[in-house]
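Let us begin with a simple case.
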Amino acid sequence: MELTLLGTGTPEGLPRPGCPCAACAACVGTRSRAATAVLVDGALLLDLTPGAALAGARAGHSLTGVRQVLLTHPHDGPAVELPPGLPTAGRVPDGQELSVISGHRVRAAAMDAPGTGYEVTGPDGGRLLYLPPGGAPAGTAGQNGQRPYDTVLADVLGRPEGLARLRASGAVGPATDVIAVHLDHDVPPGRELERRLAAAGARAVPDGTTVLVGAYDAVPDLPRRTLVLGGARSGKSVEAERRLESFPEVVYVATGGTRDGDAEWARRVGLHRERRPATWRTVETCELVPLLADDGPALLIDCLALWLTDAMDRAGAWDDDVWAERGREELEERAAALVAAVRTTRRQVVLVSNEVGSGVVPATASGRRFRDELGRLNARVAGECEHVLLVVAGQAVVLKE
């Protein structure tokens, strides 16, 4: 099957009409996006949008051969005139299958939000899943033991947990080409958009791009080890969580533990839990080496600064005499074991740590000792990671990729 993406943006398009935001201001030229619509083999049109005929002509395709027009969601904008010669647009009821005269088979997949998703099987056997804006499959998207889709067009940034659901059911596999559509102004265009999508194993393409379903395309390479650094309230934990939100069965490793009687700490922990996907499992421990050595789902370790606090507690490293006598060696052994475990782990892992070297010099010897040891630990872990980010004021700066 040959797909031509006539548009890849939100139903309002990008930039949004009258929107003064920074992302919309940057969506000019090749970064502008019309409302998402997909032409399949010149015969099937998924979603009818304003200017579809002109968009097709720009991409070198005519709509005169379209035999079926299907809608995935209500059109809330201005009335769309049906281009001459096109059949009337309609929907397929959930669970029903439609055979198009062109040889395509279309099955309507139920969504967990208003709208309809479509599974399209081409005459050549290629399989496509196209989802509406803000929609994710209800259930397993009709897999029924079938092989993964060759191509998925979905609202990756708006519904990352929907992609996680598809991965969990086997509908999306390692070779599935996941292309983000219905792109909105929540993420700035350019490198930031590419980085966010790459973390989800997805990509974006410009309007007018033609894609061959089943043809090899380099799937974004997901780094096995990522270190996310940042200061207090920089957004580092949110950035780390975002990197795994489109994957099922993530194990969230909380190294902070519980603090009896500390209501403020309990509120912090509660806020972290509320924003994490319900499918994630939480483990509270500082014993990271066994977790890294085991096989299993992705790990999100938050954070190394609290792990180091626990390690210094165990080594008695806060006391100058103990530090000089045996604390330094004990802490070094524990840190070396952690670094070695990061180096040899087979799991996908995202680690979070504080960047404290740019702040005020601590007033005490023990405070300076902690700052120095955390800096050394961060540097050693970063050396074992394929990807390192520094988050400043909510903005992620790539240090290593």
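The second case is a distinct protein. As before, the sequence precedes its structure tokens.
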Amino acid sequence: MSGKTKVGVIGAGNISEQHIKAYLSNPNVELYAICDQNEERAKAKAAKHQVNNVYFNHLDLLNNPEVEAVSICTWNNSHAPISIDALRAGKHVLVEKPLCMTVEEALRVEEAVRRSGKVLQVGFVRRYGDNTQILKQFIDNGDLGDIYYAKASCIRRLGNPGGWFADKDRSGGGPLIDLGVHVIDLCWYLMGKPKVKSVSGNTYARLGNRANVKNHAFYKASDYDPNLNTVEDLANAIIRFENGASLVVDVSFTLHAKQNEISVKLYGEKGGAEIEPEFAVVSEKYDTIFNLQPQVNKLTFDFAKGFQNEINHFIEACQGRKETLSPVEDGLEIMKMLCGIYESAAKGAEITIR
């Protein structure tokens, strides 16, 4: 592949805007097509960004031989089938997180990638953050020693987006699969991607979507319906790995909490680190503990820059100049963890992962 890569974006909802902006900022990309089953939304998105090719069925887009790669920005329940269709059509794929909704689906996507020989990159965007890559250098060079413990929180006090996010049939779940996937993957990636051994989790559906609350604005999906909510409010879990390390996580769409919170922390034998809420490293030198705060452009995750890095990396992978940082195999392992947590919560018992 040489010159500009022609890209189609499938799904014209909110997250697609981050992909589109990043593609338009990449000189090696031609944003060639937009697709959405909602014809009005597809046309509006294409007009906004001056894209000439508009589709209302993803198969029609995939049948266009000019399209070389696609971003899949659709509901979670369509990630696997559209990814498989795209790979069979000979396209490279960037699929938003989560990879799919079940481990069985993930295995089918993995097989399709193997058969196609094409790139599939899972949208674990936080891996591509500048601070993540800086911290990974510390870890890879042994500055923190063996990472044996991590903990992560992503707490919204009021933040159930409703619509398809709140519909388990389309989303696969609530805050665990929507928010937890980010922080679980970020910790797992920085821990060196150890093989998961077991998970023990809990989910709670006690508060609903709290549509009654006034005087506190929050993001609502375009198809928000206050009467629809079939997902959990809160999930927590402990994930154990074969190397003895462990990860503790809790995430919520709604909780009687004082404030929203995002926190990602890792602890090793030689030092520790926080990547959220602010990037910092804890070290020990000459029998003294040091708190080190790097001088970087932004101490927290830069959303726009993260997506730009992710898209740039995807295009370089499509053009054979890099390997993706988030291959299908990693998407499969994260699905094992997510599905294991839901299964553990349903059974009230720890689940062994194979």
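The longest strand covers residues 147-155. The longest helix spans residues 328-347.
Keep these points in mind for the review questions at the end of the chapter.
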